[in-house]
């Protein structure tokens, strides 16, 4: 039996009353054209076949729903359980969404499926009820003969694909946990249902596109860099002996939320005293003592883009001789790294710059740990092939560190930089890192406790 093709899709959309689309309003920093350009660029790379990408299906407990990075990158849709199909030849994009029950709509508000402007708003060819997906594939089997799925792991706001895969490996050490990740399961299901299709991996193409930031992304990243730096600066000003680590986290969180961020991009790290030597410590429950150093690693999730900035400072506002010595080494190394971040530069150039900086101080770089750099974008540890030369539009976090456990003395200094035409722009520069600047800021804060409240008003409504 043959149905007329054009009647099949359940396009109730046009018949229903217009409802404001919350999902679109959230994307303050992006235009429709941005998503159209991204899809066209992906289609240009894959050239043939259909690209199928599934959106996230579960809300994150205790926080706002945050869409899968690759899915968001291609269409900006924040609804649950969406599927995007992109025809690589015609560049037409089709979105599949679940039809919500009346009861769900009364509680969550209606989805963009209800909004007759959605197709136009998102530059899509069609919006279909999700229930039509398998039939759509079957009807267009010739176009799907080559199908591009994401066969690599999904990244998150905090972890890149490789980290997600290794966390899954850790989870599966206990065989009772060994269920496949949802992304792998979907690829298996699709392959099982369509054994004749030539299934290819779209992940490397997504990674290649995501590593070069667009003008719209750069504008958001600049705001995010300033906002995240301001958050750490205010936490610095709020530090004094007797204050708990989580109080600094609270100051930073308030700052970014007031600036329109949806939350932190990664779990905030505030490690004082012995905790400053644990690179990934994020319990943040210790009361900070006189004479301790505190290390804070923080970044906002603003318009779906992350940020990374780390500073280390003395809780009482004054560096001791030991602290100063270690801090100056890490600071010299960080500055040397930043010099090497320019178009055409490589990781080897960064290593050489670090060696030169260390030699100047009659030290070798053996004690230095931590990544010299990682991509930043939709994820704080963003995707992208490692080991290439730096190119304009790439964004990196630079984060040398020294941890001296026996002295409870860990120092990390991290800035996020954008590679520009002839060097790099430090997006997180507004939080001090020079010793005298830090000491001055903290002395002023001690004198004027109200400083943090006054400064906080600067971050309001920056969107
Ligand atoms: Mn980092």
Question: Briefly, what is this?
Answer:
This protein has 463 residues and is an alpha+beta fold. It has helices at residues 22-25, 32-46, 69-75, 102-108, 118-122, 133-139, 161-171, 182-193, 203-210, 215-237, 245-258, 321-340, 347-360, 435-447, 451-456; strands at residues 50-54, 83-87, 93-97, 126-129, 146-149, 198-201, 269-272, 293-298, 309-314, 373-375, 395-398, 401-404, 409-412, 415-419, 424-426. It folds into two domains: 5-210, Creatinase/prolidase N-terminal domain (Creatine Amidinohydrolase, Chain A, domain 1, 3-Layer(aba) Sandwich); 215-454, Creatine Amidinohydrolase.
Q: Can you lay out the helices and strands and say which pair or pack?
A:
Layout (H helix, E strand, L loop, with lengths): L21 H4 L6 H15 L3 E5 L14 H7 L7 E5 L5 E5 L4 H7 L9 H5 L3 E4 L3 H7 L6 E4 L11 H11 L10 H12 L4 E4 L1 H8 L4 H23 L7 H14 L10 E4 L20 E6 L10 E6 L6 H20 L6 H14 L12 E3 L19 E4 L2 E4 L4 E4 L2 E5 L4 E3 L8 H13 L3 H6 L7
Parallel strand pairs: 1-5, 3-4, 5-6
Antiparallel strand pairs: 1-2, 2-3, 7-8, 8-9, 10-11, 11-14, 12-13, 14-15
The chain binds manganese (II) ion.
Number of strands: 15
Q: What CATH architecture label of the largest domain applies?
A: Alpha-Beta Complex
Number of discrete domains: 2
* Tally of helical segments: 15
Q: Could you characterize what this model shows?
A:
This protein folds into two domains: 5-210, Creatine Amidinohydrolase, Chain A, domain 1 (3-Layer(aba) Sandwich); 215-454, Creatinase/methionine aminopeptidase superfamily (Creatine Amidinohydrolase, Alpha-Beta Complex), CATH 3.90.230. It has 15 helices and 15 strands. Strand 14 and strand 15 (424-426) form a beta hairpin. The longest helix is centred in the middle third of the chain and has 23 residues, at 215-237. Helix 10 runs antiparallel to helix 11 and helix 12 (321-340) packs antiparallel against helix 13 (347-360). The chain has 463 residues and is α+β, with helices and mostly antiparallel strands. The chain starts with 21 loop residues before the first helix and ends in a 7-residue tail after the last helix. Bound molecules: manganese (II) ion. The site of manganese (II) ion (MN) has 5 residues, from loops. Residues 308, 374, 397, 399, 414 line the site of manganese (II) ion.
């Amino acid at each position: 039996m043959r149905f007329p093709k054009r009647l099949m899709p359940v396009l109730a959309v046009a018949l229903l009353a217009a409802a404001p689309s919350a999902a679109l309003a959230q994307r303050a920093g992006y235009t429709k054209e941005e998503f159209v350009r991204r899809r066209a660029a992906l289609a240009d790379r894959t050239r043939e076949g259909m690209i199928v990408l599934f959106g996230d299906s579960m809300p994150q407990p205790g926080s706002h729903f945050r869409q899968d990075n690759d899915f968001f990158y291609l269409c900006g849709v924040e609804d649950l359980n969406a599927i995007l199909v992109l025809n690589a030849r015609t560049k037409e994009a089709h979105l599949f969404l679940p039809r919500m029950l009346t009861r769900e709509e009364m509680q969550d508000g209606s989805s963009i499926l209800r909004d007759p402007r959605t197709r136009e708003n998102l530059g899509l060819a069609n919006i279909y009820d999700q229930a039509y997906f398998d039939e759509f594939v079957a009807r267009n089997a010739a176009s799907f003969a080559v199908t591009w799925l994401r066969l690599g792991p999904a990244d998150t706001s905090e972890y890149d694909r490789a980290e997600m895969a290794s966390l899954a490996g850790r989870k599966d050490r206990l065989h009772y946990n060994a269920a496949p990740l949802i992304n792998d399961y979907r690829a298996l299901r699709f392959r099982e249902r369509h054994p004749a299709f030539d299934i290819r991996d779209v992940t490397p193409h997504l990674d290649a596109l995501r590593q070069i930031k667009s003008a719209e992304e750069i504008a958001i990243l600049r705001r995010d860099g300033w906002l995240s730096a301001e958050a750490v600066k205010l936490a610095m000003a709020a530090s004094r002996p007797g204050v708990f680590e989580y109080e600094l986290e609270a100051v930073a969180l308030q700052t970014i939320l007031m600036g329109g961020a949806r939350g932190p991009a990664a779990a905030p790290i505030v490690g004082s005293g012995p905790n400053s030597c644990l690179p990934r410590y994020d319990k943040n429950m210790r009361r900070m003592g006189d004479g301790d150093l505190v290390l804070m690693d923080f970044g906002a999730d603003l318009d779906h883009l992350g940020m990374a900035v780390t500073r280390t400072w003395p809780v009482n506002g004054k560096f001791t001789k030991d602290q100063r010595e270690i801090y100056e080494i890490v600071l010299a190394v960080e500055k040397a790294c930043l010099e090497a971040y320019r178009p055409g530069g490589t990781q080897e150039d960064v290593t050489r710059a670090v060696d030169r900086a260390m030699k100047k101080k009659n030290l070798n770089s053996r004690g230095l740990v931590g990544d010299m750099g990682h991509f930043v974008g939709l994820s704080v540890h963003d995707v992208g092939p490692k080991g290439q030369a730096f190119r304009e539009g790439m964004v990196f976090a630079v984060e040398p560190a020294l941890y001296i456990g026996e002295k409870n003395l860990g120092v990390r200094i991290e800035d996020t930089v954008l590679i520009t035409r002839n060097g790099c722009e430090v997006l997180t520069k507004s939080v001090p890192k020079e010793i005298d600047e830090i000491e001055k800021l903290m002395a002023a804060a001690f004198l004027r406790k109200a400083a943090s409240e006054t400064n906080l008003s600067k971050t309001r409504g920056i969107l």
